[in-house]
Amino acid sequence: MLYRLYGNDIDDMTSPLEAGLGWITKFTKAFVNSEALAAQKEQGVSKKLVGFELTERGIPRQGYELVDADGNSIGNVTSGTMSPSLEKGIGLGYVSTDFSKADTEIFVQIRKKRVPAVIVKLPFYKG
Question: How far apart are CA 52 and CA 10, in angstroms?
Fold first, then answer.
């Protein structure tokens, strides 16, 4: 299950399509901002909410920067924690669509260190 926390994972600046909530966004009748969302659905989104797991020791926190292998900014962490059941750091964040596929390697900028992570298919725990 993936619950988006309003104020962290979704807010006024993110669309339901970017947050992976397109399945509940019906375009059968007009609603506030429906024209812009319909255009975004047709053109595609530029960023997506994804889940990631750290492959080294660390804890991702809200606001940490997500970067590529060259250190270029590709997004930011919206929420993260240390998972006791998975025994690793996990998080959600928005990344450029180019980096949103499962198994894509990214890095979380934790203080002055880039900690490797991998994009995962959600839910985190499959048990």
Answer: 17
Per residue in 4-28, pLDDT (tens digit) is 889 899 998 999 999 999 888 888 9
Please indicate, yes or no, whether the overall pTM of this predicted structure exceeds 0.85.
Answer: yes
Q: What tokens does 11 get?
A: 């807010």
HSE, side-chain direction, 13 A CA sphere, residue 111: 2
For 16, 27, 49, 70, 95, the CA distances from 76, given in Å and listed in that order, are 17, 29, 10, 16, 7
Cα separation of the two ends of the chain:
12
Provide the mean pLDDT of the chain: 94
Which secondary-structure segment (H or E) carries 36? helix 34-43
Q: Is 21 strand, coil or helix?
A: coil
Is 1 a residue whose pLDDT tops 70? no
